[in-house]
Amino acid sequence: MKNLIEFNSLLDLLQAFPTEQSCIEALEQIRWTNGVVSPYDSSSKVYCYNDGRYRCANTGKDFSVRTGTLFHATRVSLQKWFVAIWLLTTNKKGISSYCLAKQLHVTQPTAWFMLHRMRKCFNMDTGKLSGEVELDETFVGGKNKNRHANKKVRNSQGRSFKDKTPIFGMLERKGYVRTFVVPDTTHKSLTPIIFNNIEKQTTLYSDEWCGYKLIKQYPKYYTHLQVDHGKGQYVNGDATTNSIEGFWSILKRGIIGVYHHASRKYLQLYANEYTFRYNTRKQSDSDRFYLFLTNINKGNRLTYKTLING
Protein backbone atom coordinates (compact mmCIF):
# COMPACT_ATOMS: atom_id res chain seq x y z
CA MET A 1 0.00 0.00 0.00
CA LYS A 2 2.53 2.54 -1.16
CA ASN A 3 1.86 6.29 -1.44
CA LEU A 4 -1.07 6.16 0.98
CA ILE A 5 -1.25 9.09 3.36
CA GLU A 6 -0.26 8.53 6.99
CA PHE A 7 -2.36 10.20 9.68
CA ASN A 8 -2.59 10.20 13.47
CA SER A 9 -5.93 11.78 14.29
CA LEU A 10 -9.47 12.19 13.03
CA LEU A 11 -8.60 15.69 11.81
CA ASP A 12 -5.68 14.26 9.82
CA LEU A 13 -8.05 11.67 8.33
CA LEU A 14 -10.51 14.33 7.17
CA GLN A 15 -7.69 16.37 5.67
CA ALA A 16 -6.32 13.30 3.90
CA PHE A 17 -9.75 12.42 2.46
CA PRO A 18 -11.63 15.72 2.13
CA THR A 19 -13.92 14.62 -0.72
CA GLU A 20 -15.80 11.54 -1.86
CA GLN A 21 -13.50 11.27 -4.88
CA SER A 22 -10.40 11.18 -2.71
CA CYS A 23 -11.94 8.28 -0.74
CA ILE A 24 -12.76 6.43 -3.97
CA GLU A 25 -9.21 6.84 -5.30
CA ALA A 26 -7.66 5.56 -2.04
CA LEU A 27 -10.02 2.59 -1.95
CA GLU A 28 -9.28 1.72 -5.58
CA GLN A 29 -5.56 1.81 -4.83
CA ILE A 30 -6.02 -0.60 -1.93
CA ARG A 31 -8.48 -2.96 -3.60
CA TRP A 32 -7.00 -2.99 -7.11
CA THR A 33 -3.24 -2.72 -6.69
CA ASN A 34 -2.60 -4.12 -10.19
CA GLY A 35 -5.45 -2.46 -12.05
CA VAL A 36 -9.23 -2.63 -11.95
CA VAL A 37 -10.66 -6.15 -11.78
CA SER A 38 -14.30 -6.99 -12.41
CA PRO A 39 -15.99 -8.53 -9.34
CA TYR A 40 -18.21 -10.48 -11.74
CA ASP A 41 -15.47 -11.99 -13.95
CA SER A 42 -11.83 -11.49 -12.98
CA SER A 43 -10.68 -12.41 -16.51
CA SER A 44 -12.88 -9.85 -18.23
CA LYS A 45 -11.83 -6.64 -19.89
CA VAL A 46 -13.04 -3.56 -18.01
CA TYR A 47 -14.39 -0.32 -19.48
CA CYS A 48 -14.16 2.91 -17.48
CA TYR A 49 -16.89 5.57 -17.41
CA ASN A 50 -14.57 8.19 -15.80
CA ASP A 51 -17.01 8.82 -12.95
CA GLY A 52 -15.97 6.02 -10.62
CA ARG A 53 -18.08 3.45 -12.48
CA TYR A 54 -16.88 0.56 -14.62
CA ARG A 55 -18.39 -2.07 -16.89
CA CYS A 56 -17.49 -5.75 -17.07
CA ALA A 57 -17.16 -6.59 -20.78
CA ASN A 58 -17.97 -10.28 -20.36
CA THR A 59 -21.10 -9.88 -18.26
CA GLY A 60 -22.22 -6.38 -19.31
CA LYS A 61 -22.69 -5.44 -15.64
CA ASP A 62 -21.69 -2.09 -14.17
CA PHE A 63 -19.75 -1.88 -10.93
CA SER A 64 -17.70 0.44 -8.74
CA VAL A 65 -15.07 0.05 -6.04
CA ARG A 66 -17.92 -0.41 -3.55
CA THR A 67 -19.37 -3.46 -5.32
CA GLY A 68 -19.09 -6.67 -3.32
CA THR A 69 -17.69 -4.95 -0.23
CA LEU A 70 -19.18 -3.79 3.05
CA PHE A 71 -19.89 -0.46 1.31
CA HIS A 72 -22.07 -2.14 -1.31
CA ALA A 73 -25.61 -0.81 -1.74
CA THR A 74 -25.43 1.76 1.05
CA ARG A 75 -26.32 5.42 0.75
CA VAL A 76 -23.77 6.44 3.35
CA SER A 77 -20.86 8.33 1.81
CA LEU A 78 -17.41 6.78 1.80
CA GLN A 79 -16.08 9.66 3.85
CA LYS A 80 -18.57 8.82 6.62
CA TRP A 81 -17.60 5.17 6.33
CA PHE A 82 -13.93 6.14 6.68
CA VAL A 83 -14.70 8.14 9.82
CA ALA A 84 -16.71 5.21 11.24
CA ILE A 85 -13.85 2.78 10.57
CA TRP A 86 -11.39 5.16 12.22
CA LEU A 87 -13.56 5.58 15.31
CA LEU A 88 -14.23 1.85 15.69
CA THR A 89 -10.63 0.73 15.19
CA THR A 90 -8.93 3.41 17.30
CA ASN A 91 -11.27 3.56 20.30
CA LYS A 92 -9.75 0.95 22.58
CA LYS A 93 -13.09 -0.25 23.91
CA GLY A 94 -15.21 0.41 20.82
CA ILE A 95 -17.96 2.92 20.12
CA SER A 96 -21.70 2.55 20.62
CA SER A 97 -24.22 2.92 17.82
CA TYR A 98 -25.75 5.94 19.57
CA CYS A 99 -22.41 7.71 19.78
CA LEU A 100 -21.52 6.83 16.18
CA ALA A 101 -24.92 8.06 14.96
CA LYS A 102 -24.29 11.41 16.63
CA GLN A 103 -20.79 11.70 15.13
CA LEU A 104 -21.92 10.86 11.58
CA HIS A 105 -25.36 12.55 11.60
CA VAL A 106 -27.12 9.29 10.74
CA THR A 107 -29.89 7.41 12.52
CA GLN A 108 -29.08 4.97 15.32
CA PRO A 109 -30.32 1.93 13.33
CA THR A 110 -28.06 2.98 10.44
CA ALA A 111 -25.07 3.31 12.78
CA TRP A 112 -25.89 -0.07 14.38
CA PHE A 113 -26.00 -1.73 10.96
CA MET A 114 -22.73 -0.05 9.92
CA LEU A 115 -20.98 -1.32 13.04
CA HIS A 116 -22.06 -4.91 12.43
CA ARG A 117 -21.04 -4.70 8.78
CA MET A 118 -17.61 -3.55 9.89
CA ARG A 119 -17.32 -6.32 12.46
CA LYS A 120 -17.80 -8.87 9.68
CA CYS A 121 -14.50 -7.62 8.22
CA PHE A 122 -12.43 -8.02 11.38
CA ASN A 123 -11.23 -11.57 10.66
CA MET A 124 -7.47 -11.82 10.13
CA ASP A 125 -5.60 -14.71 8.52
CA THR A 126 -2.77 -15.07 11.04
CA GLY A 127 -1.99 -18.72 10.38
CA LYS A 128 -1.93 -21.35 13.10
CA LEU A 129 -0.74 -20.36 16.56
CA SER A 130 2.54 -21.86 17.79
CA GLY A 131 5.24 -21.63 20.45
CA GLU A 132 3.50 -21.11 23.78
CA VAL A 133 -0.30 -20.78 23.76
CA GLU A 134 -2.64 -20.08 26.65
CA LEU A 135 -6.13 -21.62 26.60
CA ASP A 136 -9.12 -20.37 28.52
CA GLU A 137 -12.86 -19.99 28.32
CA THR A 138 -15.09 -17.25 29.66
CA PHE A 139 -18.81 -16.58 29.98
CA VAL A 140 -20.55 -13.39 28.85
CA GLY A 141 -23.97 -12.44 30.11
CA GLY A 142 -23.78 -10.55 33.39
CA LYS A 143 -24.23 -11.59 36.99
CA ASN A 144 -27.42 -12.52 38.75
CA LYS A 145 -26.64 -10.27 41.72
CA ASN A 146 -26.68 -7.23 39.43
CA ARG A 147 -30.09 -8.01 37.97
CA HIS A 148 -33.45 -6.69 39.07
CA ALA A 149 -35.44 -9.16 41.14
CA ASN A 150 -37.86 -9.98 38.32
CA LYS A 151 -34.98 -10.61 35.89
CA LYS A 152 -32.92 -12.99 38.00
CA VAL A 153 -32.33 -16.45 36.52
CA ARG A 154 -32.52 -19.45 38.82
CA ASN A 155 -29.66 -21.93 39.00
CA SER A 156 -27.39 -19.77 36.83
CA GLN A 157 -24.26 -19.82 38.98
CA GLY A 158 -20.83 -20.70 37.64
CA ARG A 159 -20.77 -22.30 34.21
CA SER A 160 -24.49 -22.02 33.58
CA PHE A 161 -25.59 -21.66 29.96
CA LYS A 162 -29.07 -20.40 30.85
CA ASP A 163 -28.15 -16.73 30.87
CA LYS A 164 -24.55 -16.72 29.65
CA THR A 165 -22.71 -17.56 26.44
CA PRO A 166 -19.28 -19.26 26.50
CA ILE A 167 -16.33 -17.99 24.46
CA PHE A 168 -13.20 -20.07 23.98
CA GLY A 169 -9.91 -18.24 23.53
CA MET A 170 -6.35 -19.14 22.54
CA LEU A 171 -3.56 -16.60 23.01
CA GLU A 172 -0.08 -17.04 21.62
CA ARG A 173 2.39 -15.39 23.97
CA LYS A 174 3.80 -12.25 22.31
CA GLY A 175 1.54 -13.06 19.36
CA TYR A 176 -2.08 -13.29 18.29
CA VAL A 177 -5.30 -14.24 20.00
CA ARG A 178 -8.25 -16.16 18.55
CA THR A 179 -11.75 -16.35 19.97
CA PHE A 180 -14.71 -18.61 19.25
CA VAL A 181 -18.24 -18.48 20.59
CA VAL A 182 -18.98 -22.13 21.41
CA PRO A 183 -22.18 -24.03 22.32
CA ASP A 184 -20.52 -25.40 25.46
CA THR A 185 -17.09 -25.92 27.02
CA THR A 186 -16.93 -29.72 26.85
CA HIS A 187 -13.92 -31.49 25.38
CA LYS A 188 -16.02 -32.37 22.33
CA SER A 189 -16.38 -28.67 21.48
CA LEU A 190 -12.91 -27.44 22.48
CA THR A 191 -10.60 -30.18 21.18
CA PRO A 192 -11.38 -29.77 17.41
CA ILE A 193 -10.82 -26.01 17.68
CA ILE A 194 -7.44 -26.58 19.31
CA PHE A 195 -6.31 -29.02 16.61
CA ASN A 196 -7.53 -26.75 13.79
CA ASN A 197 -5.87 -23.58 15.08
CA ILE A 198 -2.69 -24.58 16.90
CA GLU A 199 0.44 -26.10 15.35
CA LYS A 200 1.77 -29.41 16.60
CA GLN A 201 4.73 -29.34 19.01
CA THR A 202 3.21 -26.31 20.75
CA THR A 203 3.23 -25.91 24.52
CA LEU A 204 -0.27 -25.37 25.85
CA TYR A 205 -1.13 -23.74 29.16
CA SER A 206 -4.57 -24.00 30.72
CA ASP A 207 -6.42 -24.31 34.00
CA GLU A 208 -7.74 -27.59 35.40
CA TRP A 209 -11.03 -27.55 33.45
CA CYS A 210 -11.98 -31.03 32.17
CA GLY A 211 -12.68 -29.65 28.67
CA TYR A 212 -8.93 -30.01 27.98
CA LYS A 213 -8.64 -33.63 29.09
CA LEU A 214 -8.26 -35.08 25.58
CA ILE A 215 -5.12 -32.99 24.97
CA LYS A 216 -3.34 -35.12 27.56
CA GLN A 217 -3.90 -38.10 25.29
CA TYR A 218 -1.78 -36.56 22.49
CA PRO A 219 1.67 -35.98 24.07
CA LYS A 220 3.31 -36.34 20.64
CA TYR A 221 1.34 -33.33 19.42
CA TYR A 222 1.29 -30.97 22.40
CA THR A 223 2.99 -30.36 25.72
CA HIS A 224 0.18 -29.52 28.12
CA LEU A 225 0.85 -27.79 31.45
CA GLN A 226 -1.84 -26.68 33.89
CA VAL A 227 -2.54 -24.46 36.87
CA ASP A 228 -5.20 -25.40 39.40
CA HIS A 229 -7.36 -22.34 40.02
CA GLY A 230 -9.62 -24.39 42.27
CA LYS A 231 -6.74 -24.68 44.74
CA GLY A 232 -5.75 -21.03 44.44
CA GLN A 233 -2.85 -21.76 42.09
CA TYR A 234 -2.36 -19.16 39.34
CA VAL A 235 1.30 -19.68 38.43
CA ASN A 236 3.10 -23.00 38.16
CA GLY A 237 6.52 -22.38 36.66
CA ASP A 238 5.85 -21.17 33.10
CA ALA A 239 2.26 -22.35 33.32
CA THR A 240 -0.23 -19.52 33.73
CA THR A 241 -3.29 -18.18 31.94
CA ASN A 242 -2.85 -14.57 33.06
CA SER A 243 -2.44 -13.19 29.52
CA ILE A 244 -5.65 -14.68 28.08
CA GLU A 245 -7.49 -13.67 31.25
CA GLY A 246 -6.22 -10.13 30.72
CA PHE A 247 -7.73 -10.22 27.24
CA TRP A 248 -11.07 -11.38 28.65
CA SER A 249 -10.96 -8.42 31.01
CA ILE A 250 -10.56 -6.02 28.07
CA LEU A 251 -13.43 -7.65 26.16
CA LYS A 252 -15.82 -7.68 29.11
CA ARG A 253 -15.05 -4.14 30.20
CA GLY A 254 -15.69 -2.98 26.65
CA ILE A 255 -19.03 -4.77 26.44
CA ILE A 256 -20.14 -3.59 29.89
CA GLY A 257 -18.84 -0.03 29.58
CA VAL A 258 -19.64 0.74 25.92
CA TYR A 259 -22.20 -1.70 24.55
CA HIS A 260 -23.83 -2.66 27.88
CA HIS A 261 -25.22 -5.82 26.32
CA ALA A 262 -24.19 -8.28 23.61
CA SER A 263 -26.76 -10.89 22.69
CA ARG A 264 -25.81 -14.49 22.04
CA LYS A 265 -26.77 -13.99 18.39
CA TYR A 266 -24.19 -11.25 17.76
CA LEU A 267 -21.55 -12.11 20.35
CA GLN A 268 -19.10 -13.58 17.80
CA LEU A 269 -19.12 -10.27 15.93
CA TYR A 270 -18.21 -8.40 19.11
CA ALA A 271 -15.52 -10.98 19.88
CA ASN A 272 -14.10 -10.43 16.37
CA GLU A 273 -13.88 -6.71 17.06
CA TYR A 274 -11.83 -7.06 20.24
CA THR A 275 -9.72 -9.82 18.72
CA PHE A 276 -8.79 -7.60 15.76
CA ARG A 277 -7.97 -4.68 18.03
CA TYR A 278 -5.73 -6.87 20.21
CA ASN A 279 -3.96 -8.46 17.23
CA THR A 280 -3.13 -5.03 15.78
CA ARG A 281 -2.12 -3.45 19.09
CA LYS A 282 1.47 -2.88 17.92
CA GLN A 283 0.45 -1.14 14.71
CA SER A 284 -0.11 2.57 14.23
CA ASP A 285 -3.68 3.85 13.95
CA SER A 286 -3.30 4.59 10.24
CA ASP A 287 -1.77 1.15 9.53
CA ARG A 288 -4.68 -0.46 11.37
CA PHE A 289 -7.11 1.64 9.33
CA TYR A 290 -5.55 0.58 6.01
CA LEU A 291 -5.32 -3.04 7.13
CA PHE A 292 -9.04 -3.00 7.78
CA LEU A 293 -9.68 -1.66 4.27
CA THR A 294 -7.83 -4.66 2.81
CA ASN A 295 -10.50 -6.84 4.45
CA ILE A 296 -13.56 -5.09 3.01
CA ASN A 297 -14.30 -7.97 0.63
CA LYS A 298 -14.80 -10.22 3.69
CA GLY A 299 -17.90 -8.25 4.55
CA ASN A 300 -19.57 -9.83 1.51
CA ARG A 301 -22.39 -7.34 1.57
CA LEU A 302 -23.96 -8.28 4.88
CA THR A 303 -27.61 -7.26 4.40
CA TYR A 304 -29.89 -5.96 7.12
CA LYS A 305 -32.28 -8.88 6.52
CA THR A 306 -29.46 -11.41 6.92
CA LEU A 307 -28.24 -9.69 10.07
CA ILE A 308 -31.66 -9.66 11.68
CA ASN A 309 -32.77 -13.14 10.62
CA GLY A 310 -29.42 -14.92 10.45
Structure description:
Helix 4 (97-104) packs across helix 5 and helix 7 crosses helix 8. 35% of the residues lie in helices and 13% in strands. The chain is elongated. The chain has 310 residues and is α/β, with parallel strands linked by helices. 27% of the residues are buried. The protein has two domains: 10-35 and 68-124 and 284-309, no CATH class; 132-279, Nucleotidyltransferase, domain 5, CATH 3.30.420. The mean pLDDT is 88.
Q: What are the key terms here?
A:
2 domains, 310 residues, 10 helices, alpha/beta, five-stranded mixed β-sheet, Nucleotidyltransferase, domain 5, single chain
Q: Give the CATH topology of the largest domain.
A: Nucleotidyltransferase, domain 5
* Cα end-to-end separation: 35 Å
Total domains: 2
- The CATH architecture of the largest domain comes to 2-Layer Sandwich
Number of H- or I-type helical stretches:
10
Low-confidence stretches: none
* Tally of DSSP β-strands: 8
Task: Write the CATH homologous superfamily of the largest domain.
Answer: Ribonuclease H-like superfamily/Ribonuclease H
Give the spatial strand order of the biggest sheet.
6-5-4-7-8
Shape estimate: elongated
Radius of gyration: 22 Å
> Tell me about the biggest sheet?
5 strands, mixed
Taken as a percent bin, the fraction of beta residues is 5-15%
CATH class of the largest domain: Alpha Beta
Class per helix and strand makeup: alpha/beta
Mean pLDDT figure: 88
Order of helices and strands: HHEEEHHHEEEHEEHHHH
In helices, the fraction of residues equals 25-40%
